[in-house]
TrEMBL record:
<dbReference type="InterPro" id="IPR016488">
    <property type="entry name" value="NADH_Ub_cplx-1_asu_su-6"/>
</dbReference>
<protein>
    <recommendedName>
        <fullName>NADH dehydrogenase [ubiquinone] 1 alpha subcomplex subunit 6</fullName>
    </recommendedName>
</protein>
<dbReference type="GO" id="GO:0006979">
    <property type="term" value="P:response to oxidative stress"/>
</dbReference>
<dbReference type="InterPro" id="IPR045299">
    <property type="entry name" value="Complex1_LYR_NDUFA6_LYRM6"/>
</dbReference>
<dbReference type="GO" id="GO:0045271">
    <property type="term" value="C:respiratory chain complex I"/>
</dbReference>
C-alpha cells in the first residue's frame, strides 16, 4: 500500500463534525406567499410566522448577547404581543402585508442589520420603558419643594 492509497482510505472514513444550521440560512427559504385565499389561511400563516420567530430567538440572543438583559420567554411574549396588536384585522390582504413586514423585520434582526440597542429598545424595554415615573420621585421630596416645583413649573 502506498501512502496516497492509505490517505484516500482514511479520508473516506473521516467525516467532519457537522455544524448546526444557522437560523439565517434557514430563513432564506421562508417566504410569505403573496395572497391568502381566506382568513383561515392567513391565520395559519400568522401562526407559522410566530413559530419561526420563536425558533429564531435562541440564535438572536446569541448574536446580540441578550442573555444578561432578557430571557427567551420574555422575547417570545414580546413577539406574541407584537402580533396581538393587530388581532382585530380581518382583511386577508392586510394580514399578508403585515406578515411581509414582520418577516422583513425578522430577517433584518437575524442578518444583523440592526444593532443591539435597537433590539433592546424595541423588544426588551418597549415603549413604556422610556416614560419616567414622576410620582415615585415626588414621594421623598419635602412639601416646600413640591410647592416650589408646582408653582414655578406648572
Amino acid at each position: 500500500m502506498t501512502l496516497v492509497t492509505t490517505l484516500k482510505r482514511a479520508l473516506i472514513h473521516f467525516q467532519p463534525e457537522r455544524k448546526k444550521p444557522r437560523m439565517a440560512h434557514m430563513l432564506k427559504n421562508f417566504r410569505v406567499p403573496p395572497n391568502s385565499a381566506s382568513l383561515e389561511e392567513a391565520r395559519s400563516r400568522t401562526f407559522e410566522f410566530l413559530r419561526t420567530c420563536c425558533r429564531s430567538i435562541p440564535h438572536v440572543m446569541d448574536i446580540y448577547n441578550l442573555h444578561d438583559v432578557v430571557s427567551p420567554s420574555q422575547l417570545r411574549s414580546a413577539a406574541a404581543s407584537e402580533l396581538r396588536k393587530n388581532a382585530s384585522v380581518t382583511n386577508p390582504k392586510v394580514i399578508d402585508m403585515l406578515l411581509f413586514k414582520g418577516m422583513e423585520e425578522l430577517m433584518n434582526i437575524v442578518n444583523q442589520s440592526k444593532q443591539r440597542h435597537h433590539i433592546v429598545g424595541k423588544y426588551v424595554v418597549g415603549n413604556q420603558g422610556l416614560v419616567q415615573d414622576l410620582a415615585a420621585k415626588d414621594q421623598d421630596k419635602s412639601n416646600f419643594l413640591k410647592n416650589f416645583y408646582s408653582s414655578n413649573y406648572s
